[in-house]
UniProtKB/TrEMBL annotation:
Domain Glycosyl transferase family: 190-353
InterPro entries, per database record: Glyco_trans_1, Glyco_trans_4-like_N, Glycosyltransferase_grp1, Thiol_BshA
GO biological process, one term: bacillithiol biosynthetic process
One Pfam family hit: Glycos_transf_1
Gene that encodes it: bshA
Gene Ontology molecular-function annotations: glycosyltransferase activity
The Glycosyltransferase subfamily 4-like N-terminal domain, residue ranges: 11-181
Protein name: N-acetyl-alpha-D-glucosaminyl L-malate synthase BshA
Length: 380
């Protein structure tokens, strides 16, 4: 198949999943065309089946905000026509599904027999944030219902979408995934972690885009309690608006020498593959991709019991769940686990088994391929 993929190319779950999906599809012989305003952050593999098409947004004095959605629709139509794409797969409903709908209409107007189907994957804040801003509800609902197929990354997100938008439209649940051959516990993990920690120190990790919903200060608060009980280091992977607040908090607590802000990283698997524990105290997660990537590396998580996280983490088996803001309980779980080597490694291996059995790319990518075939058969 020839597939066009559009996502936000920044450091966030939807862009990561869309990029990884495109690379996995390319490995399976499909021709993949990324159509975005810049190259996705994790698109670092050179592959003959992967193509990138930049969306150029013109700055014009009449527009206070450049019309990205219109430029995207135009570029989608151009790429689809030039490369004879079979379908578009857009990640995030607004504005990507609206742009795909316009591209489909543009092609149909030029060639009435041409129907360019598009699939929309819902990732979370495209629904939860829009759900809080009712002004976007009609266009979001319309673009979803106009899609030729819709998927959600968790049962939680599917149910929220149907409830908040009163949609009478089938939404398939296709969960996020991880490449289990790439994300794993490295045999030389001790050697890799020497750059950050000594042999007697635990390595705790957090991975996100540092937005308020990730509750970055809670990560620091939890770790502060942990490091008071046992030797530990914290790796903060990612960047975003709350980084400066977190850095200030580490200085205020006098733990700045134990917390390493690594910024955006490409080889996430290398950092996760040497860690002991993931902290994910988010206000809301529609899935929890960071926890899944850690699980594949035999790293259990202490996370919040929100959204789709319980669909990923089995409390007491592959990690621990607590209420939002309950840093005391999360710290207690972390300290207990990090203090017990046997329990830590048993839980890590259980996490790896869960990732392999339910969320490996080898199991999820065929679900997307089958979904594409179903859509193409339905519209042909």
């Amino acid at each position: 198949m020839k597939i066009g993929i559009t996502c936000y190319p920044t450091y966030g779950g939807s862009g990561v999943v869309a990029t990884e999906l495109g690379m996995e599809l390319a490995e399976r012989g499909h021709e993949v065309h990324f159509i975005t305003y810049k190259q996705p952050i994790r698109l670092n593999a050179q592959h003959p089946n992967i193509h990138f098409h930049e969306v150029d947004v013109s700055n014009y004095p009449l527009f206070e905000y450049p019309p990205y959605d219109l430029a995207l629709a135009t570029r989608m139509a151009e790429v689809a026509e030039l490369h004879q794409l079979d379908l578009l797969h857009v990640h995030y409903a607004i504005p990507h599904s609206v742009s795909a709908m316009l591209a489909r209409q543009m092609l149909a107007a030029a060639t009435p027999a041409r129907h360019l189907p598009f699939v929309t994957t819902l990732h979370g804040t495209d629904i939860t944030v829009v759900g809080a801003d009712r002004s976007y509800l009609p266009i979001t609902r319309y673009s979803i219902e106009q899609s030729d197929g819709v998927t959600a990354i968790s049962s939680y997100l599917r149910d929220v979408t149907i409830r908040e938008f009163e949609i009478n439209y089938p939404i398939a649940v296709v969960p996020n995934f991880v490449n289990c051959d790439l994300y794993l516990r490295y045999a030389d993990a001790k050697k890799l972690r020497k750059e950050y920690a000594s042999d007697d120190e635990r390595v705790v990790v957090h991975l996100s885009n540092f937005r308020p919903v990730k509750r970055i200060p809670d990560v620091i608060e939890i770790f502060d309690r942990v490091q008071k009980k046992l030797p530990a280091r914290l790796l903060m992977i990612g960047d975003g608006p709350d980084r400066s607040q977190a850095e200030w908090l580490t200085r205020r607590k006098g733990i700045q020498d134990r917390v390493h802000f690594l910024g955006k990283q490409n080889e996430i698997n290398m950092k996760l593959g040497m860690a002991d524990l993931m902290l994910m105290p988010s206000e809301l997660e529609s899935f929890g991709l960071a926890a899944l990537e850690a699980m594949a590396c035999e790293v259990p998580s202490v996370a919040t019991n929100v959204g789709g996280v319980p669909e990923v983490i089995d409390h007491g088996v592959t990690g621990f769940l607590a209420n939002v803001g309950d840093v005391e309980t999360m710290a207690r779980y972390a300290i207990g686990l990090l203090s017990d080597e046997t329990k830590l490694r048993e839980m890590g291996k259980a996490a790896r088994r869960a990732a392999q059995s339910r969320f490996c790319a080898s199991k999820i990518i065929p679900q997307y391929e089958e979904f594409y075939r179903t859509v193409l058969e339905r519209v042909s």
